[in-house]
C-alpha cells in the first residue's frame, strides 16, 4: 500500500466541487439524535469538542488534528475504523439491523424486489463476517420457501435489472454453504442476463440509468466469486465502462440518466457501490481495471466536497438546500471505507470522511433498528422539483441495505 500512487485532491480541485454554503449551518435540530456524541474525534471542522471527549481523544487543539493525521503512517490510520462510541460499532449496528430484517415482511407481497435483495445480501455478508451462525441460518431459512412450488412465484422472472439482481442472494448463500442448489439458481440469473447481447457485447437489459451500475454488477461479480469464471468479470467491467463513458460528468458525479441531468443522491450511491464491488473482484492486471479505478477515484474526490458538516450527503448531491438522505450516505460511506481499507484511497484524506459518514448514518437509525430519512423509490425525470420533493421513508430497504454493507466493510 505504501507504493500506491495516491490521487489525493488538491485544495484547488476540491474548491471547484464545493457546494454553496448551507443556510442550515449551526441548526442542531436538523442533526440526527446521536450526531453530536458520535462524530467528534476526527472532525477537524468542529470548533470545539466536549471537554471530556476532547481530552480522551487528543491532548491538543482541534485545528492541529488534521496535521497529526496527515503525518501518521498508513498502518497507524486504522484508528479511523476503531474506538467506536458506545452503540455505534459495526458489530452492534449490523446485528440490530440484520436481525430486524429477518423478522420483516417482504417489501412487496407479489415478488422479491431489488431493495430487499440488497438488504438480504448485506445481512448475509454481515453474518458471515461476524461469525454469527445463528443469524446466517435464519437468513437462509427466510430464503428456502422461495425454492418451493408454493413460494417460487415470488421470484420475479422479468428480464430487467431490478429482477435479475435477485441472483446475488442465492450466489452468496452458495459461497457460504457450498450447496449447489443455490449456485444453480443464482447462476441462472447471471447467465440469462447475457443471452443475446448487443453488438457491443452489452446485456439487453442495458438502459443507461445509473441504478444499473450496481444491479448488473452485483449479480455478475457474485457469479464470478461463486464459479471463478472470468467471463462474469469481463461482462461486468465492459458494462461498467460503457456506463462511465455515457454518464460520468467532468466533476466526477453522475447524471441519473442522459435525459435526467441531476445528481440524485441514491443514484450516485448505486454507482459508488457498484464500482466498489467490481474493484474488489477485478485482478490488478484486468484490462479495464485502470479505467474503472480512475473513475472511482474521481467520484470519491468529488464526494468529499459535498459531504455536509453533519457527515451526510443530500438528496441531490450538489444542492445544499436538499434534505440529508441516508441511503446515499450509506452507499458513499461503504465506497469510502472499502477504498481506504483496500489501499485505493489515501487514508489521511478519505478516512475521516468515511468515519464521519458512518457515525452520522448510525444517528438516523431509530429504536426499532429502522433507518429514517430514506428517499422513496425514484424513477428518472427531467424535473428538479421532482427530485427535491421526494418523500422520506422510515425502514425502507433502500436505507437498511447500505448500513449492512458498511458494517460488513468495516468488519472485512
Structure commentary:
The chain has 412 residues and is mostly helical. The protein has a domain at 11-105 and 223-411: Alpha/alpha barrel (Glycosyltransferase). Helices cover 52% and strands 2% of the residues. The protein is built from 18 helices and four strands. It has helices spanning 11-15, 35-38, 51-57, 65-71, 90-103, 114-130, 133-143, 161-164, 168-177, 180-193, 212-227, 230-247, 265-281, 289-306, 326-342, 347-362, 384-388, 397-411, and strands at 313-314, 324-325, 374-375, 392-393. The strands form two sheets. It has a two-stranded antiparallel ribbon. The longest helix is centred in the middle third of the chain and has 18 residues, at 230-247. The radius of gyration is 20 Å and the shape is globular. The relative contact order is 0.14. Mean pLDDT is 85; it is low at 1-77.
Strand adjacency order, main sheet: 1-2
- Give the H and E element order: HHHHHHHHHHHHHHEEHHEHEH
In helices, the fraction of residues equals 40-55%
Computed Rg:
20 Å
Structural class: mainly alpha
Mean pLDDT: 85
CATH class of one domain: Mainly Alpha
Which stretches are poorly predicted, pLDDT < 50 over at least 5 residues?
1-77
Strands, total number: 4
Shape: globular
What is the tally of helical segments? 18
CATH topology-level fold name of one domain: Glycosyltransferase
**Terminus-to-terminus distance:** 17 Å
CATH architecture of one domain: Alpha/alpha barrel
Question: Sheet bearing the most strands, described?
Answer: 2 strands, antiparallel
Beta-strand proportion: under 5%
